[in-house]
Each structure stands twice: as C-alpha cells, then as structure tokens.
Amino acid sequence: MHARDALATAPRTHRAHIDRARIRRRATTTTTTAALKTGRESSAASDSKRARDAMQLTPADVDAAPPIACALSPAITAYVFKTRTRRTFEVEYGAKRGSSENAYVARGASKSCALDCVDSRHADAYGAIAGIGDVDFIACLHAAPRRMDALAAAIAARPAGAECVEVLCSNPGAQVIQQALKANNPLTNENLIAAWKGADGKLRARLRVVKNNEKIDLGDRTLTFTTAPTPRWPDLIFARDDASGMLFTSKFFSAHVASEGDDVSDVGGWEAFGEDWRYFYDCLLAPMAKQVAPVLSRMNSSSETGADGDGDAPASESDAQSPVALKRGGVLGAIGRLFSVGGKAEERVVSATYDGVAAAICPAHGPIIQSSVTEVFREYTMWTEKQIASASNLEIAVIYASAYGNTGAMAQAIARGISKTGIAAEMFNCELATPDEISQLLKRCSGFCLGAPTLGGTLPTPVQTALGAIIKDGDLDKPCGVFGSFGWSGEAVDMMEKRLKDGGFKFAFDPLRCKFKPTAETLQLCEESGTDLAQAVRKLERRRQVLERKSVGKAESAVSDTAAAVGRIVGSLCAVTTKSEDTQSAMLASWVSQASFNPPALTVAVAKERAVESFLMKGGKFNLNVLKEGGEKDVMKALLKPFKPGENRFGDLDVSISENNGCAIVNQSLACIECSVTQRMEAGDHWIVLAEVESGSLLDEVGVTSIHHRKSGASY
C-alpha cells in the first residue's frame, strides 16, 4: 500500500456504538425485498424486537414543522420538508449541506394521487397536509422501512367510511410493506398495522403492484409508471405526469442540500447545485452505474418518442392555460427556464409543455429541477459512461445483504472509497442474486468484499449462499475484506473472516464491525478501507504489468520530455490538516498556490483517492501548515508512512488544535493559514479546492519555505 493521508483519531477500534434510545419511530436506510432468514427460528422473535428497539428515533429527531407547499402546476403540488442540519451519518450526507424530504400530490379531474412518502421524522406533519386523506392513490416510489410511518399517517388521515386508498408500488416494494404489516418481525410497523385496518375491522388501504409502463387515469391526466431497480433500491419506480411532462424520480437526480428561505427549485442552476448533484451521484449511484445506464437510456428513449410513445406529450387544458407555457428542446439541446409566477415562494406556479427528457424533474431530496433538466441529465449520462468505462479496466465487487440498512450504509461507504481511486465499484445485493451470478461477478472483478448483519447469531441465508460460491469459485490471488453490523454478538463477521482465511484468501483491510447504526467515524473507516482494497488491487495490477513486460523483454518506459518538463514546476511543501465531526485528517501537499489578493484565497490540488478529500467539501475548514526548510523531515516521515484505516495520523508530531476551526496546527511549521472551502473543480484525477483565508499566523519569522522538487510530472 502506498503512503497516503488518513485519520488522526484515538486508538483504532472497529466497533462503533450508537445511542440506544428507544421510542416510537423507526429509521432504517435500505430497502430489502423481504426480511432476511437465517434458519434459526428459535431466536427470531427476540432478534426482531431488539433490532426494532435499536432503530427507533429519539424525540429530538421528530420534526413537526409543516412543509413548504409549492404549486408546480395547477394540478401538481410539491410539499418540501427541509432540514438544514446533518441528522444521519450515511456517507451521502457528508457534504453537511442539510437535505429535504420531498412529496407530491397530483390532482386530476376525477382522481388524485400522492407521490413519494417522506421520512418517519416528518410523518405527523405529512399526515396533516390538507387533503392528503382524500387521495385515491398513494404511490410509494421507494418503499423504504423508514417511510412506513408517513404512509401510515396518510392512511390514518382518511375520513371514516372513505373508500380504500390504493397503495401503488413495485413488487419488491410490496414485499417491504407486507413485512411491515406482519407482527413480530424486524420490519414490523405498528403504526401502519393500526392505520391499514379501521376500528370496525374494515380495510382502509390495499396494495396494488404496478408494472412497467402501467398507466393510472386521474381524469384529465395520466400517470405512467416505470420500474428503475438498482441493487441499493430494488423497489424503485418513476412516475411521469403525461399532461405536464413532470417526472418523479425518487432517489435519482436527488441531492442532500437545503437552500435558504422557501425556495424549493434549482434557483441558481448548475452553478448553485452542481456539486451537490455530483456528490450524491458519486456516493450512491456511481457504484451501480451498470444498473443506472439502462434507466437513463429508457428516459432518453421516451423523451424522443413522447411520454405516450406517440410524439409530444399533450398538455392538459389546465396546464395550457398556465401563465407560462414553454416549448422545451431535446435532451442535448438548450432548455428554457421554467419561470415562477405569483407572490410568495410557497404559492409559486410553474408549468410547461415539453419534448425533452422532462419539463421538470421532481426527486425525493433536494431542489426540484426546473432550469437544469438538460444539464443534470447530460452530466448523469457522462458520469455513468465514465464509471462503466473504468470498470472495463479494473472492478471491485461489494457483495452484501442488509436487514435493517446498517450493513447497506457500510457497503455504500466502502464503495465510495473504492470509486474515489478510479477503480469501479459494483454493489451487489446478494438477496437478489443466484450463486451463478455471484460466480460470474467474481470472475470479472479484481477484488471483492463481503458484508452481512448478524441474525440469530449467524449469517443470513443469502450471504451463506454467496460465501459458498466465493469459496468454490473465488480466485485466491484477489484481495478481499469483510464487514457487517450487529445488534448483540456480531458472529457473522467472524464467520466470514474465518471461512475466507481457511480458504486461503488474502485480506486488504481488517474486518469492520458496527454495533447497530454506523457513526460518522465508522463510515469514514469504511471509506478508507475501501480505498485500501482498491490500492491493493492496483498494486497487483502494476505487478502483473511489470511481469508481462519482462516476459516479452520490454524495458520500463523512460520519463517523457513532457513529464520531465512538468516536473520542473515547484511548490511549497505543506501539511493540510482538517476536521469533520470528532475526526481529524491530514495530508502532505505541494500543489498549492495563492489564487486571489482580495479576498485572500488559495488553491490546493487533492487526489480523489485521498481520505482527506471528503473532508474538503464546500464549507469545510482546514489549516495549511507551510513547512520550514530543514525542519520538514519529521512531518514528511509522519505523513508519508504506510498506515491502517483509523490509525493515529500525527504520531509523535508536536501539534496543537486551533481555537477557531478545531483543525490541527503543526507547531514546527513556518506558518499556519486557516481556510474555508468556497468552491471545488474537478481536474482529472484530482479536485482543485478553492479556499478563502480566514486568518494566518507566522510561527517562525526567520525560517525559509521548504520547496518540493521533482524530476517527473507523472508522480508526486
């Protein structure tokens, strides 16, 4: 493993603990097609209760604030629940820009449909939305366990004697809801059970599984549903309002960001939200690029033929009479803005006819995309093509099962760490796979890791099956790792580790264990471990290439004139120190430059695979410690040595902590500059971080800056 930056934490531990407060609402993160089975029924009831108790929200998590209501057209209203603080530690929330839970209601001439439920913390406020109890359909575009309380609240809001509301979902989503309606299992939801059947014993709701391209007639408008399954969200479906051209995409095109004020759309466009859309994609969709590609292809195909497959989608009479009606260009053409009209933000009305991908994209999180539809779709397509192309070189499989979402969150963080290195990560939910599919996956991948929760003191059956396929067909030269969450004893990780070790497999990182819900520190550890696995794969690939060249008598290529010329560019040798939550991180840097006089600003180039990269998001704080000539060796030794994830990064270095931003100050440096990240720009295999200088101090008035000299521009 080559030297790189890492966390400066307390002595390393792989067991993360969470607050065990127990109250009424659940919070899981990943949809599963059904409750996992282990074959040990004797402990199933106690395991289920313990899991449910551990995943309850605290009273402080419940948000009773009403949503922002915004009329997107005369027939469609968005209800946006904004949260400006980070409440969960999943890797996709790492930018710390807040988030939103978005729900929608489409009202036709004769019927109406609610689209997307929200997180449990907003369930009461969702159930209080005017008219939510009168809808004829509730479309669960993503039927996650954490959304079942909101579904229950909407059903409970129905007046006595009302007809059954039809709950629309995919087949995997229906299985999640059915599990929630069963007593005494891990996904049981008492609120949904109570709401589903009235006090008189009559049903108040019934399930309806929608098929691909199935249409629901609301009178003067039609909703068309499209399945969009991925390993993380096998139940996902899209919905298109064929009259207005608005597309409801759930997790796709989402972003975890909450803008100030009552704006709910992408005011400011790509410049304002481009980084947020990219970060969400990189964290959640990049590891599933092969499954994302056909979804995007279907969207593009439908845009070329019209929503109904017979040309342009017709606008309804009410939409045509909207104050704004814009003709929209094709998917790769220019796209007009959807202007807002009216007074207050929450009363804004926008509408358009279209012949592109969509008149507007309505995701589950973040801004409703109105002015940037073409840009976002184009970038999604380019990012996906790039991910698939990288997979043709090297690819690592992240194979997992997740009962309550915690192991899934760990898998997502590991995949994020892998993909940062430029190696493709393929997330593979073994609950949905056959042994043959797993064997084929192992053949095309250069490494793998396996994750599982502990259920009933053992491995879930799908993971046992996957492990058997790995032992039978796996290549012992490919590096691997194991990880998992548990609620009591955690035997699953030990079982996977022992079987793989006994089988002769080599581990790229130590086993990762998480008790109940992962913390920010745990997920950072998972991300770093994913990077270590990717580096082990790349090291093996370099060794293979060297042996291949030697076998044909080909010598190592010399440094080119271009690389030698670029290598003559020199830079100040610095130590970048930063902090996120309670975790410190650091790296050695020489690609540093002043960028502005007023306000004073500088740039730092950060390799995408660096652990510190995820700390330097927009708004992040860091210290630039300028090293002193003659006194840089100790710092270089500390920051360049090999290390394990979670290992203390500073070692014996003399450091103190800034009172202003909480980041480390290297006391033997020449100067310390405290900075705040304002922008990021992608530059090949690096990010260029632009930061404003907030303050600075000269620690040595007579010293001289240490300069880093290189002979080649192809390496540091």
In short:
This protein is an alpha/beta fold and 716 residues long. The protein has three domains: 54-383, Ribonuclease Z/Hydroxyacylglutathione hydrolase-like (Metallo-beta-lactamase, Chain A, 4-Layer Sandwich), CATH 3.60.15; 393-539, Rossmann fold, CATH 3.40.50.360; 561-708, Pnp Oxidase, Chain A (Roll).
Describe the structure in your own words.
27% of the residues lie in helices and 23% in strands. Helix 6 runs parallel beside helix 9 and helix 11 crosses helix 12. The chain has an eight-stranded antiparallel sheet with strand order 1-22-21-25-28-29-24-23. The model is unreliable at 1-35 and 305-355 (pLDDT under 50). The protein has three domains: 54-383, Ribonuclease Z/Hydroxyacylglutathione hydrolase-like (Metallo-beta-lactamase, Chain A, 4-Layer Sandwich); 393-539, Rossmann fold; 561-708, Pnp Oxidase, Chain A (Roll), CATH 2.30.110.10.
